[in-house]
């Protein structure tokens, strides 16, 4: 019989609220943005987040490599 894996807790894990403060966009806002499609999604992205580059800055992510920006 296979052994059950023990649940591990990531010591670096953040709450959704902490992540929202760190990244200047809440998990709920990001989820809503991802669910918004077509022209409406592009308009929301541009108006509320400064386009893709603005969203990348909020998420502290390099849009080309996908890696976290170091600042």
What does this structure look like?
The chain is mainly α and 71 residues long. It has a domain at 24-58. It is built from four helices and no strands. It has helices at residues 16-23, 27-35, 38-49, 51-58. Helix 3 (38-49) crosses helix 4. The chain is elongated. The termini are far apart. The model has no long low-confidence stretch (mean pLDDT 85).
For the secondary structure, the number of strands is: 0
Low-confidence stretches: none
Count of separate DSSP helical elements: 4
SSE succession: HHHH
- Tell me the distance between the termini: 48 Å
Considering DSSP H and I runs of 4 or more, what fraction of the residues is helical?
Answer: 40-55%
Class based on secondary structure composition and strand pairing: mainly alpha
Mean pLDDT: 85
Sheet of most strands: none
* Shape type: elongated
Strand content: under 5%
Whole-angstrom Rg: 16 Å
SSE map:
Elements (H helix, E strand, L loop, with lengths): L15 H8 L3 H9 L2 H12 L1 H8 L13
Helix pairs in contact: 3-4
Summed up:
The chain has four helices and no strands. The chain has helices at 16-23, 27-35, 38-49, 51-58.
Defining key terms:
71 residues; 4 helices; mainly alpha
């Amino acid at each position: 019989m296979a052994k059950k894996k023990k649940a591990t807790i990531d010591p670096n894990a953040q709450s959704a609220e902490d992540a929202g403060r760190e990244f200047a966009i809440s998990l709920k806002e990001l989820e809503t943005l991802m669910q918004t499609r077509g022209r409406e999604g592009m308009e929301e992205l541009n108006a509320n987040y400064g386009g893709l580059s603005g969203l990348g800055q909020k998420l502290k992510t390099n849009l080309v490599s996908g890696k976290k920006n170091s600042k």
